[in-house]
Amino acid sequence: MDCLSCRKGPPRRSCLTVDGDDPYMEQYPMLRIRQLRERKGVSLRELARRAGVGVATLSRIESGEANPRMSTLLQLADALGVFVGQLFEKPSRRKGG
Questions:
Q1: For labeling, which of 13, 40, 42, 69 is most exposed (least CB within 10 Å)?
Q2: Count of other CB atoms within 10 angstroms of residue 2
Q3: 62 and 34 in contact (C-beta within 8 Å)?
């Protein structure tokens, strides 16, 4: 998929931000690996070890710089003790706050 704003190659964070909004990420769910990892009190290094992926790779996935394969997502979900679909859920937005 091309970048939505400049249509040159894969989406990059720098291409997608307009007035603080990210239309691409509003349309598609974001990976919540970091959020789930931190909630469970697991370090980046420990999750990488449990999932069998490199620390640098996991860091890039969490920051949105890398697009993981489905097999990697399954390994991460298993290591976190969640269903793979939970990696994609949008955080619920609270109303009135």
A1: 69
A2: 11
A3: yes
